[in-house]
Design a protein that fits this description.
Elements (H helix, E strand, L loop, with lengths): L10 H39 L3 H29 L1 H19 L5 H15 L2 H12 L5 H8 L5 H15 L4 H22 L21 H6 L7 H9 L2 H32 L3 H7 L2 H19 L5 H25 L7 H23 L2 H27 L3 H8 L5 H49 L1
């Protein structure tokens, strides 16, 4: 992932950047161990503790709401505490609270501890983005964030497979939680000594931010300056792109978290799979989501800037078709049909393949471009937080199915939301192209002025 802007860097720079990438990937993977555990073990928890589907839906929805609030609050903390300190603090607290959840036996206690854990988890992505902004230059943002998505997409698939195997091996849900917490702590300890916030700490300069960042040329030159809350928020609030990204994040996160949280239960209820088998089968969604993010990141770094918006629009058009197909399947195919499971898994795979590229752009490349080095953590956290406000409604999806309406109407509703997202991305695309034209015009005018001055001398 070396670009022209990296030429002349020392071997020491590349070594520590690889170390940072590896620890961020492992660290955010273990963040996900401490959040996917609830989705994977939800059926076992319900059976063991006597929770019904509505109560479990409340636990999940409250967790999403607290996670969203945490995103809004912790983004500015990360800018002040630094990405490294924030990243390790959130992971350590979340891991310890995962152990604490194994002692909770009532809905209020479970909800309280899970919510605090989710608040700690809300620190992770903004901190990760902040560290990446210090190590990579703008022309590689798509590939970098596509790679980082491995931690929560491919990682999610591997987590579901691993935890499903553990469940089938006879481990209780409490023991599964202990495994998740232990992995988090095992990453925090070496990261305290090896994870570097910035190449400045090894005597190297930081790459420049994107020209599209809303904080201007002066801020980009002030490598160590921490912006005030007003300085962070005012430029963002004046940018139409920011509001469009908020809306897109709400809708696409709702769709993503519906499949992340409820795919095991869907496969169990509709197709009659065991808890462990449903957990392992559900890994097709994050697995194909990983492929989507990697392909999408590669595309946006290589297509002409004016065509990047078209990449997202194409993905969402295909996603709409896949959701309509799953709605049709859910209402018509009996579980006893030998084709039912292959068709369901194929459609869920396609949904992951078409959803996760545009989703990963929102708090990845677009966040880094909009926020630059000095505002990317706050920008990522706010956009991500807005998304999880939308995700709080995914907890009501299970309540809809419990009320007898079935899964088909749910997927049709998600298809309609995808069409709305496609329209929003078209507007974003228009504004992005307009901004590119204005930037090129300013550069052209500057070049002509420079030429005239040189000619006069």
């Amino acid at each position: 992932m070396t670009t022209a802007a990296d030429e002349g860097r020392s071997a020491r720079f590349y070594l520590w950047r690889r170390v940072a990438v590896a620890l961020l990937l492992l660290g955010y993977l273990t963040y996900y161990f401490n959040r996917t555990n609830l989705s994977v073990t939800s059926k076992a928890i319900m059976e063991d503790l006597g929770f019904n589907e509505t109560e479990m839906g409340v636990i999940v929805s409250v967790g999403y709401a607290v996670y969203a609030v945490g995103k809004f609050v912790t983004g500015t903390w990360v800018e002040r505490l630094g990405g490294r300190n924030s990243f390790l603090l959130g992971l350590g607290i979340s891991s310890l609270l995962t152990i604490g959840m194994s002692f909770c036996k009532t809905v209020p206690a479970f909800t309280a501890v899970w919510s605090i854990s989710r608040f700690a988890q809300s620190i992770g992505w903004g901190a990760l983005v902040r560290i990446c902004s210090c190590w990579f230059e703008s022309k590689s943002y798509g590939r970098v964030m596509g790679m980082m998505s491995l931690s929560y997409m491919l990682g999610d698939a591997l987590i579901r497979l691993t935890l499903g195997v553990l469940q089938n091996a006879g481990l209780s849900w409490e023991e599964v939680f202990y495994v998740c917490a232990s992995l988090g702590i095992a990453v925090v300890i070496p990261s305290i000594f090896l994870l570097k916030q910035s190449p400045l700490l090894i005597g190297e300069s930081e790459p420049h931010s994107s020209e599209k960042n809303v904080y201007g040329e002066e801020t980009k030159q002030e490598e160590e300056r921490v912006l005030t809350l007003r300085e962070l928020m005012v430029p963002l609030l004046k940018t139409p792109k920011f509001y469009i990204l908020l809306v897109l994040s709400i809708v696409l996160t709702l769709i993503r978290e519906t499949f992340n949280s409820w795919t095991p239960i869907y496969l169990s209820d509709v197709l009659g799979l065991s808890d462990g088998d449903a957990s392992m089968a559900s890994m097709v969604f994050p697995f194909f989501g990983t492929i989507s993010a990697l392909i999408g990141g590669w595309l946006v770094d290589r297509v002409r800037p004016r065509w990047r918006g078209g990449v997202s629009v194409c993905f969402l058009l295909l996603l709409t078709g896949a959701l309509i197909g799953l709605a049709w399947f859910s209402d018509r195919f009996p579980a006893t049909d030998p084709l039912a499971l292959p068709i369901a898994l194929t459609l869920i795979s396609l949904i992951g393949l078409f959803l996760m590229a545009p989703y990963s752009f929102l708090d990845g490349i677009y966040t880094l471009e909009l926020g630059g080095k000095h505002g990317c953590a706050a920008t990522a956290s706010i956009i991500n937080g807005a998304g999880y406000l939308g995700a709080t409604f995914s907890g009501f999806v299970l309540a809809m199915t419990d009320s007898g309406s079935g899964w088909g109407p749910v997927f049709l509703l998600l298809a309609l939301l995808t069409v709305a997202s496609m329209l929003a991305f078209i507007l974003f695309w228009y504004i992005d192209v307009r901004d590119i034209n204005r930037t090129e015009m300013r550069h052209s005018q500057g070049d002509r002025k420079s030429t005239r001055l040189n000619s006069s001398h």
